[in-house]
Amino acid sequence: MYPTPPPAPLQPIRGVGTAAVVMLAADSVVCLMASVIDAQRAVLVDRFLTDTNSVPISDLETNDVLYAASGLVETVVYVATAVAFLVWLFRARANAEVLCPWPQRRATPWLIFGWVVPIVNFWFPKQIVDDIWTSSKPGAVEESGSLATARRSGLVWAWWLAWVVMTLVTRLVSRMYVDAEELPEIRDAAVFDIVGNVLTIGTAALAVAVVLAITRFQEDRRQAAFWSYAA
To answer: How many structural domains compose the chain?
Structure first.
């Protein structure tokens, strides 16, 4: 019924995995709501450019308030989501070190610094998750000669490529429109913000799938250990 139990007890991971999934879902909901405000902003500005009398100034002012508030909420929820994901990542990594006979390719500090150090942030986090996936999936370690040569998960690849594209697009857009003051630029910034939000939602969905898969692998191994000791 269960895969081979690990040689040492694993830490429970379902709770932190659930927290990470909930926050990723919350971040997606916030992005969706922000996109609605962005769409309203783009429509209002476009109508105002076409006919200044067709849009009451109060509507523009209300949208400005909503736009600023949504940006603040997005930032707060994003930070909370990042913290929840990192907590799960540290727990998953600790379990992976128990499950795998080979050392993980990146030292523990890279679980944080790998996301923020320029250049290496384009592959270190993926390597870390790749190693956790291989260490956690039943039979993957036995099939591999080492963590460096192990077969890579298509799901992890999809999540990481989505993350890279989302990161590049959002950074480019923020640089292009950071000082947007003219109405056409403000409208275009709102449109491109919607694109960034769509990419963020897609990336979050793939991240949820990765978290759920690794959590399931490790919980199955933990259950195997429980029944083995109980017997």
So the answer is: 1
